[in-house]
Write a structure and sequence with these properties.
Radius of gyration of chain B: 43 Å
CATH superfamily of the largest domain in chain A: Phenylalanyl-trna Synthetase, Chain B, domain 3
Strand order of the largest sheet of chain A: 28-31-32-36-35-34-33
Largest sheet of chain B: 7 strands, mixed
Number of helices of chain B: 11
Structural class of chain A: alpha+beta
CATH topology of the largest domain in chain B: BirA Bifunctional Protein, domain 2
Largest interface: A-B, 101 and 88 residues
Strand content of chain A: 25-35%
Shape of chain A: elongated
Strand content of chain B: 15-25%
Order of helices and strands of chain B: HHHHHEEHEEHEEHEEEHEHH
CATH architecture of the largest domain in chain B: 2-Layer Sandwich
Distance between the termini of chain A: 91 Å
Number of strands of chain A: 40
Largest sheet of chain A: 7 strands, mixed
Radius of gyration of chain A: 42 Å
CATH superfamily of the largest domain in chain B: Bira Bifunctional Protein, Domain 2
Shape of chain B: rod-shaped
Oligomer: heterodimer
């Protein structure tokens, strides 16, 4: 919210005048000032002048020659605007003055005629957006006075971020009240209010429901108060410059006098008003009701047609909606320059209803913004009186009858609360004196009831709808006292019971292992597109109903798409990287058959290595299937002692993998994830080398009981070494053969490294469809030195067994 | 006899000098000192020498045997040494600066590093780590945390809605509710995790990370909150970092505070000098905090007259951006290697 410092000073007599200090005080009391803008000082050579004569330019059709006077001297000016008349007061920039847009005015010839200055538009003074014509100032503006002073351009504007609970601060009055409570000044708003009450008592404050216009409120819960005043306006003069200036400063567009006055009151008092053209109100009556079930239409002031139903509160005439209550008026009944009979509404609406309408229609306004944050229910009469007083000062206004004032019985009863001082101390950590508490709360407008000191009994002012509990009072005292002086201690609560058991030991281990292997950790979005889902071979994923775009419409069931995306991004944009190793640990989201989400922590890693020349002594970096398998196996060995198997991806459970280059990883025989080469189809153009990746489900590892494995005694006797090379059918796996060799070797091959594949060969002279596998076998007994004869017997039994089981033949 | 010995010694010496390798040396040893060697043969002749000459000749023969043996051994050793030396020289690495090819640097993501530091600080203060789902119900994300339906407080957190009436949590605070429903006070927990808001620009990411803190017991005060946050700021940013609490509003805490730290870029001295980090205010907002609202305690069946405590939420990206001087939040998420490799 933008707030004028000068305006603020009309409602409070400040003892602190430095805007920076005011901003700081407000910020430190919870009303955050996020910016201060000082209007650019344009100096005093742009002055008020009067137009004496307008004549056509001799050499240009679109230009005119104006004679203007600043009260002392007469100047001749060339001007392009057409909106001025003889006698108008205008903003005249003398030679040598500098405008807001940085232009310096020089004496110059325009189409052969000398111009002794310039008449300014809004844009040239940086006070508005209007540039088609010059500013016409108030006719009372004193000649020769700097325009800066005349338009209050020296003003400072605060940008204030009001938290959603403090609807009462969305006005000049609200901020004035805060400053008074903060001890920054004395209130003037009480005098203003008293004057308004006195001057407009008869028209506005009288408790009458017998006005000209019949009003029916059908939803008293949603509209506890509804005031309506009819007046005639004999003509619609231009809105005074000072008022336009303030509206523009606060970000509102001037429209016409009546509308501008309603906006001015909204900014000043926080009470939204709405003006209707009475002649457009069919039947001359007003009904406050819900929209009809079958739907009603209204074209609002934004020229958009809205369909309204029972969830919307409407202000209607006999036949049709005139206004979406509290949100926006209808275009048809809007007050225009030609309007002469006006209905002025000042009402209180239920915040939740207004918010619902505004969100449901996607239509927000200064009015709905305030109503949904709750407006003071006592404000309508005062706002109405203020509007009438402003109108009466600018135009010839005749009020017809008295104001209608509907209000629901009991709706204005003040809330009363108790405050225990001990409660404050227990919560905040230090004592507050009864006198201090009382002083702070009364300065905020709370009324102390009775003489009891503790608990203190208080009545909440009508504008503080956010205060309804003792805790709210405690907060008020704490924030006005300021958090700065509060002590800083530590809780005496002992360490939490779960402090050790809750520690995650898995993730840090994974991260340090993989980063040690040259992998970079990524953080990806949790979203993916339907196309990516298809790549994964999944049919379903949890859907986001309001995604940022179709690429982010689903919740990821796998980390793979993100890794691939990051890989592709780096591959295409950062060609200097000739290898990539990436990983992510994060949540994945699946959809259960019941439709409910299943979240699982997963790990995925990707590696790629370009074929790069390296000097012969260097270790050639790799990223192929077996390298990646090594990385994964090494990791899993650190994380668990359970059995890990790799099974070919023959069933294509992982269609994003190369059809012949993938494996399923199994933990204790059940799927844990996959490992393999990425299907070339998904790789970026120009990527020739294989990209390998794995993904595993960490929940399975988390569910394993962490246990310390006991040590096994090891043999101190010598090892007997044998090499065995056999020829088998291609589909026989090395793991099957090794398993069989171990089985025959029994206890003598108990060591983890006892059977090691040393060669695999296919090609001549091995027959087609066959392959040769060579193993190095290390026999060792726990209790004695093995004799060669013993090992020889075992070795030939092994060979025989491989022959029977796998049709293996010894390779000669 | 002595003459024979002298001749033999001279011949042996000459042969020794001309020996070029270990094999020749061994042959020499066998030739003179072996069982059938020349010196051995001479020694056998010793018996035929006159008895009075025998000791002199014997001593001379022995001397030659010992000295020759010694000389052969010495030469063998010296040749061995020489050979090893040559071997070492031929094995030497001329350029030790050549790259190994083995080591490729990797890195843990800066957000992990910062989260880890935050969690460690609170772990040291006795906080347990808790976790919760990222897909939440309206109840846990909003209602239980005292966000009324149709209240503008909900606008503070633009929400992604998920099918079946669910949503992506907009903060880590729902975990407060999960933990309090499961446990009774006292409790002190810390909740690191991803949260989601419907936002995407240079300072907002649709996914970002928070660390939530919650402490509930019978007498935890707002001064305790201030002291705890002070401790956090000091451990994270150093002893002399200024910190201030400023009143604010969150539906689930009351009183509520925004917490600012002194701008490390300009140290608050850059008034009107255009500090891009703090916009010349001298302060940077780093987290939100407050005393747990009684309504929240009631929602989990804690008696607010008996139990009280505080909660806070730290933005991990915010802390990381300040620590590393990063100015675009999106860098954390696009996986660009030129960014990631800086955190090795």
């Amino acid at each position: 919210m933008k707030l004028s410092f000068a305006w603020l000073q009309e409602l409070v007599e400040l003892t602190v005048v430095d805007p920076e200090e005011i901003a700081n005080r407000l910020t430190m009391a919870g009303v955050e000032v996020s910016g201060i803008v000082c209007r650019q000082d344009m100096g005093d050579s742009v002055v008020v002048a009067s137009i004496l004569e307008i004549a056509p330019h001799p050499n240009a059709d679109r230009l005119s020659l104006c004679k203007v006077s600043d009260g002392k001297q007469i100047y001749e000016i060339v001007c392009g605007a057409t909106n001025m008349q003889v006698g108008d007061r205008v903003a005249f920039a003398k030679i040598g003055s500098r405008l807001a847009n940085g232009i310096k005015i020089k004496k110059s010839k325009i189409r052969g005629v000398v111009s002794e200055g310039m008449l300014c538009s809004e844009t040239e003074l940086a006070i508005g957006e209007e540039s088609s014509g010059i500013i016409v100032l108030d006719s009372a503006a004193p000649l020769g006075q700097p325009v800066r002073d005349c338009l209050a351009l020296n003003d400072t504007v605060f940008d204030i971020d009001v938290t959603p609970n403090r609807g009462d601060c969305l006005s000049v009055l609200g901020i004035a009240r805060e400053l008074v409570a903060l001890g920054c000044g004395r209130p003037k708003y009480n005098d203003v209010e008293a004057r308004l009450r006195r001057d407009y008592a008869k028209v506005v404050f009288a408790a009458s429901t017998t006005g000209e216009v019949p009003v029916t409120v059908k939803e008293p819960q949603l509209c506890p108060r509804y005031m309506l005043l009819r007046f005639d306006i004999t003509d619609m003069p231009a809105t005074p410059m000072w008022m336009v200036q303030r509206l523009v400063q606060c970000g509102l567009r001037p429209i016409n006098l009546v509308v501008d006055v309603t906006n001015y009151v909204l900014l000043e008092l926080g009470q939204p008003l709405h003006a209707f053209d009475f002649e457009k109100v069919a039947g001359g009556e007003v009904v406050v009701r819900r929209g009809q079930k079958r739907g009603e239409k209204i074209t609002a002031l934004d020229e958009v047609e809205y369909v309204l139903g029972p969830e919307h509160l409407l202000i209607c005439d006999k036949s049709k909606p005139l206004c979406i209550a509290g949100v926006m008026g209808g275009l048809d009944s809007a007050v225009q320059q030609t309007t002469r009979k006006v209905l002025l509404e000042s009402a209180h609406f239920d915040p939740a209803t207004i918010r619902h309408s505004s969100r449901q229609l996607g239509l927000s306004s200064e009015s709905s913004y305030r109503f949904e944050r709750r407006v003071d229910p006592q404000a309508p009469p005062l706002a109405l009186a203020r509007a009438v007083s402003l109108l009466a000062a600018c135009a010839s206004v005749e009020v017809v009858g008295r104001a209608v004032d509907y209000h629901q019985a009991g709706s204005t009863k003040p809330v009363s609360l108790n405050l225990r001082l001990g409660r404050y101390e227990k919560l905040i950590g230090h004592k507050v004196a009864a006198a201090t508490a009382r002083q702070i709360l009364t300065s905020l407008g709370f009324a102390v009831v009775g003489k009891h000191k503790d608990p203190l009994k208080l009545e909440v002012p009508s504008w503080r709808g956010d205060v309804s509990r003792e805790i709210d009072l405690i907060e008020e005292i704490a924030r006005i006292e300021g958090y700065g002086d509060m002590a800083a201690t530590l809780p005496t609560t002992p360490p939490d019971d779960e402090v050790e058991t809750s520690r995650d030991r898995l993730m840090p281990q994974i991260r340090s292992y993989l980063s040690g292997q040259g992998f970079y950790e990524l953080y990806g979005f949790s979203f993916l597109s339907a196309k990516e889902l298809e790549m994964l071979g999944r049919k379903e994923a949890m859907q986001i109903l309001n995604p940022l775009g179709q690429d982010f419409a689903l919740l990821r069931p796998s980390l793979v798409p993100n890794l691939l995306k990051a890989f592709t991004h780096n591959f295409n944009h950062y060609r200097q990287y000739r290898a990539q190793r990436l990983f992510e640990v994060g949540r994945t989201f699946a959809k259960a058959a019941t439709g409910s989400p299943i979240e699982r922590r997963c790990l995925a890693a990707l590696a790629w290595q370009a074929n790069e020349p390296a000097w012969q002594g260097a270790i050639k970096p790799a990223a192929d299937f077996f390298w990646m398998k090594g990385v994964l196996t090494g990791l899993l060995q650190q994380l668990t002692h359970h059995t890990i198997d790799f099974v070919r991806n023959d069933e294509e459970l992982y269609p994003f993998l190369h059809p012949g280059g993938g494996a399923e990883i199994r933990l204790d025989g059940k799927p844990l994830g996959c490992l393999g080469r990425m299907h070339p189809e998904y790789l970026p153009e120009g990527c020739e080398e294989p990209v390998t990746l794995f993904e595993i489900d960490l929940e399975r590892l988390y569910s394993l009981r962490q246990q310390v494995s006991r040590w096994r005694p090891f043999s101190r006797y010598p090892v007997v070494e044998r090499d065995l090379a056999v020829v088998v059918d291609r589909q026989v796996s090395a793991t099957q053969l090794a398993g069989e060799i171990r089985k025959v070797g029994g206890a003598l091959l108990g060591n983890g490294n006892a059977v090691r594949l040393v060669d695999q060969y296919m090609g001549k002279p091995i027959p087609n469809g066959k392959k040769s596998l060579a193993f190095r076998i290390l026999y060792q007994a726990a209790d004695r030195t093995l004799r060669d004869s013993e090992v020889d017997r075992l070795f030939s039994r092994t060979l025989k067994q491989l022959e029977t089981r796998f049709g293996a033949t010894l390779r000669s | 006899m002595l003459t024979k010995l002298k001749k033999l010694e001279a011949a042996a010496q000459q042969a020794l000098d001309s020996c070029a390798d270990a094999d020749a040396l061994e042959a020499l040893r066998v030739q003179y000192l072996g069982k059938k060697g020349e010196l051995t043969a001479l020694l056998k002749e010793l018996q035929s020498v006159d008895a009075d000459q025998r000791p002199v000749v014997g001593a001379e023969a022995n001397r030659i045997k010992v000295e020759l043996g010694e000389a052969i051994r010495a030469k063998t050793e010296s040749m061995d040494r020489q050979r090893r030396q040559q071997q070492l020289e031929s094995d030497s690495i001329e350029d030790v600066t050549l790259p190994s090819g083995l080591i490729m640097p990797g890195a843990i993501h800066p957000l992990t590093q910062v989260t880890h530091r935050i969690v460690e600080i609170f772990h040291g203060l006795g906080y347990a780590v808790a976790d919760g789902p990222q897909i939440e119900t309206d109840y846990y994300n909003f209602s239980a945390l005292n966000f009324p339906d149709n209240h503008p407080a909900r606008d503070m957190q633009d929400t992604f809605f998920v099918e079946n009436g669910l949503l992506l949590r907009t903060h880590t605070s729902p975990v407060q509710i999960h933990v309090m429903e499961r446990r009774r006070p006292p409790l002190k927990i810390i909740v690191p995790g991803a949260v989601y808001r419907h936002d995407d620009d240079i300072t907002h990411s649709p996914i970002f990370y928070q660390v939530e803190g919650l402490a509930v017991d019978e007498s935890i005060t707002m001064a305790d909150l201030k002291g705890t946050l002070r401790r956090f700021v000091v451990e994270m940013f150093g002893d002399n970092t200024p910190m201030r609490l400023r009143p604010s509003f969150f539906p689930f805490t009351e009183p509520s505070a925004e917490v600012d730290m002194g701008c490390p870029n300009c140290c608050g001295k850059a008034k009107a000098k255009g500090c891009r980090l703090c916009g010349d205010s001298g302060w940077l907002e780093i987290l939100g905090a407050g005393m747990v609202d009684p309504a929240v305690l009631e929602n989990v069946d804690y008696d607010p007259e008996r139990y009280q405590g505080f909660a806070f939420g730290i933005g991990v990206e915010r802390i990381a951006m300040i620590l590393y001087g990063i100015d675009d939040i999106r860098l954390f998420y696009d996986g660009a290697l030129p960014f990631l490799e800086q955190f090795a």
